[in-house]
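Need tokens for this chain, all 286 residues.
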Amino acid sequence: MEYEIVTTKSMSAAQLEEVSQLAVICNEHDGIDLKINPSMLTKRSGDYPEDFLCYADNKLVGFLGLYIFHNKEAEVSGMVHPAHRRKGIFTGLQCAAEEECRKRGIPDLVFIVQKKAQSGAAYMQRIGARYEFSEYWMDLEKPAQVALGHAVQLRPATAADDETLIQLNVLGFKLEEAMVREMAERMANDPLNSTYLILAEEREVGKISVNREGQKAFIYGFCVHPDEQGKGYGRQALAKTIELIQAEGFTDVSLEVACENNRALGLYESCGFVVKSANDYYRLAL
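Here are the structure tokens for all 286 residues:
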């Protein structure tokens, strides 16, 4: 059987549907929940090839997507139809993605592998990728009763708050400032994303962001300034964010947290989130 790899800067509606259906097949077969970020796939810039599709007899049997937030690395998620595995399909998709990253001067690939996907972990070992960390995917099941005070408030961020947000990201997530600025530029002006400043006694002590799509809301970019941690501001801010989202009618609320971040994990669990799955991240230098 002949396989054809197609590279695209922006997938058509038909291709997006094919990727969605392939994910359903792979998830059901492997008992996992692949992280392919469908909302990001629909919003490609169209400037560079970032989606790689493999066809056999005009049927999609393999997919690899690049998710690039800054120029130091490209996150990778992909899948191969169960009936077409061990035939070099993912290797071919990976090679095409590596070539594109080299052209753009991106030095590393970071593969997202479902913790339950044994074939994925074995492949990472085979190509020499180095394990870095794991993240839990958490869903809100039943919001905990958190006494909401008036000391902590949320305020929608505006363009005038850009520098404050950048410094909160640098300090809260311990990231390089240049990287934070690049990520902010890439994610700016997305109508599905909203960022809020966390105010405590009118001081800007943290930030939290929400992505809204359909009936789903995803909380991300949540941090409290290191000097303000341990004062209960984070729990209050998260509870207020949940209240805000649910008042808007969103019933499906999720977030991610690093597995080793026990403090954050405990915070999320105290507000009603439960762990649903986990992803391992592996780095491969090009």
